[in-house]
Design goal:
The chain is of the alpha+beta class. It has one domain: Alpha-Beta Plaits, CATH 3.30.70.120. Helices cover about 20% and strands about 35% of the residues. It contains 2 helices and 8 strands; from the N terminus they run E-E-E-H-E-E-E-E-H-E. Strands 4-7-1-8 form a 4-stranded antiparallel sheet, with helices on one face. The longest helix is centred in the C-terminal third of the chain and has 14 residues. The protein is globular, with a radius of gyration of 16 Å. It starts with 5 loop residues before the first strand and ends in a 9-residue tail after the last strand.
């Protein structure tokens, strides 16, 4: 197995929980796309509060409960692999934010056998 090490890119995709792509949650479609392109991994994080370009507040506070919580999809991968999926990601994400930054991978390996 080829393990990552050294300089890589961190891709973050900020979307809403209710965003859809082909009838299913957008974050599912994004993770499916990354798996199809053999990315090393991806994580979907559900936020407890946030707002985007519209400035509409999304929160889990009971008194102002939102049904569209913030979602962040993160992955660390080579610049080449990220470049290959960006055009398709841009067509999938109707509203949101995509960021990218350089990171140094310190450790990447599968879980140890139990």
């Amino acid at each position: 197995m080829d393990y990552m090490e050294g300089e890589r890119d961190l891709l973050r995709i900020f979307i809403g929980e209710r965003d859809k792509h082909n009838g299913k949650p957008l974050y599912h479609g994004i993770v499916d796309l990354l798996r199809k392109h053999h990315f090393a991994g991806a994580t979907v994080l559900r936020g407890i509060m946030g707002f985007g370009a519209s400035s509409k507040l999304h929160t889990d506070r009971f008194d102002v409960l939102s049904l569209d919580m913030p979602i962040v999809v993160e992955c660390v991968e080579s610049a080449t692999n990220i470049d290959a999926v960006l055009p398709e990601l841009e067509t999938m994400v109707g509203g949101g934010l995509i960021t990218r930054e350089r990171v140094r991978v310190v450790l990447h390996r599968p879980a140890l056998p139990t």
